[in-house]
Design goal:
Belongs to the DeoC/FbaB aldolase family. DeoC type 1 subfamily. It comes from marine metagenome. Its EC number is 4.1.2.4. The protein has 11 helices and 10 strands. α5 runs parallel beside α7. The longest helix is centred in the middle third of the chain and has 17 residues. It is α/β, with parallel strands linked by helices and 266 residues long. The protein folds into 2 domains: 35 residues, no CATH class; 219 residues, TIM Barrel (Alpha-Beta Barrel), CATH 3.20.20.70. The strands form 2 sheets. An 8-stranded parallel β-barrel has the order 3-4-5-6-7-8-9-10, surrounded by 7 helices. Strands 1-2 form a two-stranded antiparallel ribbon.
């Protein structure tokens, strides 16, 4: 099917009546053939209620400048909430995204959280100065499991307070797969007391990722005061739906494009 708009012919697929390059069946075939990323110039049809909840993520240590450019271009094309990347790429992402509404999210203390509060504070300050408008920080998991509540509180506050003064959003990664339910509860309570904007399940580099049970528990603890970000192992639209129904208000995923494509075909 073809439709003409302002003298430009737009080819549309017959199965879903969306622009041909957005056809879910066509794109699913590309992904199944082995593509991990699909760059598109989307002209319409993207479900913003899905895309706007996704932090498009690339945190692997071997990511290249080309990979980061692709990540940013996809985020702008699809309207993702943010790109989430390592601090070394913040300047490049900030410049690449320019005047788009896409936020740049930098991780801090990543992925183990085993650095002092002062170091995390400096790392956050540097990322914010480089152009980040969101910070995902990892708590000191070992201190939490040792019962050192005061250190964990200082750890969180060192980053959250900087974000607040910079009008940036803060997300506190608690690495749920390493914690008991009581430890998850305490971590969420400390993040809430520090007035963080979100609690986040996982780094994606731990022994497990986001689960429905953990998201539900975290939502029950923080109530409506904080957002809940689910990350780690979110690779398809069905998982996206299950986690948002459980209470997640942001999803961290490297498979953001695939999730949107599947949502288009749902």
């Amino acid at each position: 099917m073809k439709r003409s708009k302002q003298g430009v012919t737009v080819r549309r697929c017959d199965c879903h009546d969306v622009p041909l390059e957005c056809c879910p069946e066509r794109l699913r075939g590309v992904i199944e053939a082995g593509a991990s990323r699909v760059g598109l110039h989307v002209t319409g049809g993207v479900p913003m209620e899905v895309a706007s909840l996704i932090d498009h993520t690339l945190l692997t240590p071997d990511a290249t400048d080309h990979d980061i450019d692709t990540l940013c271009d996809e985020a702008a094309q699809y309207g993702f909430a943010a790109v989430c990347l390592n601090p070394t790429w913040v300047v490049r992402a900030h410049q690449r995204l320019g005047d788009t509404p896409i936020n740049v999210c930098s991780v801090v203390g990543f992925p183990f959280g085993a650095t002092p509060p002062e170091v995390k504070g400096y790392e956050a300050q540097r990322a914010l100065g480089d152009g980040a408008s969101e910070i995902d920080m990892v708590i000191n998991v070992g201190a939490l499991k040792s019962g050192d509540r005061r250190l964990v509180q200082r750890d969180i506050e060192a980053v959250v307070e900087l974000c607040r003064h910079s009008d940036a959003q803060s997300k506190v990664i608690i690495e749920t797969a390493l914690l008991t339910d009581n430890e998850k509860r305490l971590a969420c309570e400390l993040a809430k007391a520090a007035k963080a904007d979100f609690v986040k399940t996982s780094t994606g580099f731990g022994p497990g990722g986001a689960t429905i049970a953990d998201v539900s528990l975290m939502r029950a603890i923080v109530g409506d005061a904080l957002g809940v970000k689910a990350a780690g192992g979110v690779r398809d639209y069905d998982t996206f739906k299950a986690l948002t129904r459980a209470g997640a208000t942001r999803i961290g995923a490297s498979a953001g494009v695939k999730i949107v494509i599947e949502a288009l075909g749902a």
